[in-house]
Design brief:
Biased composition (Polar residues): 38-64
Helix content: 40-55%
Region (Disordered): 28-74
Shape: elongated
Biased composition (Basic and acidic residues): 65-74
Largest sheet: none
Structural class: mainly alpha
Number of helices: 2
Transmembrane segments: 6-24
Number of strands: 0
Order of helices and strands: HH
Keywords: Membrane, Transmembrane, Transmembrane helix
Length: 74
């Protein structure tokens, strides 16, 4: 009689697992999308395609940890 809580939890877990499997089996028959993403057509025209280039920034002083520590000590 003391095991009713453990048996109840096991029964609930089994019911949840069986419910999840039936949901997966039902959804596996119908695809989520009508067309795959690779088969879709582009709707926005892409004109003036150029490669993206970031402007270069000239560095006057090299960045290093040695310069930072010497400035903090002063």
């Amino acid at each position: 009689m003391n095991n009713w809580l453990a048996l109840g939890i096991i029964a609930i877990v089994l019911i949840i697992l069986i419910g999840n499997f039936s949901t997966v089996r039902r959804n596996a028959k119908t695809p989520l999308r009508k067309k795959s993403l690779n088969d879709l057509q582009e709707t926005l025209p892409r004109t003036n395609k150029t490669s993206h280039q970031m402007p270069s920034i000239p560095q006057n002083q090299p960045h290093s940890d040695a310069n930072k520590t010497s400035k903090q000590e002063q």
